[in-house]
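Record 1 of the preview.
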Amino acid sequence: MRLKSITYENFRNHRFLRFDPSAGINLLHGPNGSGKTSILEGIHFCALTKGFVGATDNDSLSFSKDYFILNSIFCDDKEGDINVKITFTKEKEKQIIVNHSEIKPFSQHIGRVPCITFSPQEIVIVNGAPAERRRFIDNTISQTDRRYLDDLLAYRRVLLQRNAVLMHMNEQNEVYSDMLSLWTEQLTKLAASLIYARTKFLSLFLYQFKEVYARLMINEDPSILYRCSAGKISEDPSLEELYSLITNKFQQITKQEIARTQTLIGPHRDDLLFLLNEKEIKKYASQGQMRTFLICLKLSQHRFFSEIIGEKPISLLDDVFSELDEKRAEDILRILETYGQTIITSAVKKEYSNMTARSIESFGKN
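->
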């Protein structure tokens, strides 16, 4: 997958801008606040329907403007050119048009333009709350497995319904007992399917992750474990094993769930345990080790996509070189040489033989 061109209109601090990256490694350099990250975010919008820095669509409007437009052309080896246009106004919802056809729901677009990102804020994947790690694994699998994305969206809908029933049962309304059984059965099937897919993903991903990590670090042994809220699971659990485990756990905690009016187990409560030399990284690792761990997660994500879908995703790396020494930066660039199209932002210009560097100021007034 490659981005051929993208235009920005009233997006963040760009009133109008066009970007035509090269097919290999691109470096956008310039002072902080000049709009480098906004360029990456616009590409992310076109690939995954939203920005990657956690802002709302409304936050992406240029100051005093009431609409923005992103118009991009990607190309791959299978479908040829893919035109993705995104428009947003304060009065109407966001509109996504792919090859002149509107896409609804937006989830139908996920996976069409595979994309990985790195930004300093994403360090929370390594040292933050479990929800950040769940988001990482969900986003990764969803771009390569349509069934997983459909199950994930269905799980979230059923979870809301089940929690609503628990709320009513807390009010001593026994008429909801049969309804709870119905929603629990649906949730259990979806939960088992999601956890099964996650464990299968990790068994493939961990091998790639260890290989990438070994190219950047020596004498360190990284690992990733799946922590299931329903109880201990085997290294390679079957779908039936997971269904049985979740069913039994729900039976044990029904009264507790009614008292707390919420579903206490399931994929929405699970976590990934990141280890370095058998110690939990968020508790014992240095900032440098955590940042390297995150970079390796992202580089391994790229390799996973490439192997599963047979298409190299676009890499969007925001300020990836900060806090890294020159050797580590060069090691990363050598890996990226084989990764297809990469767009990197940096406050300072870097010199590397196989990289196209461009100052943000060269785009002209924006």
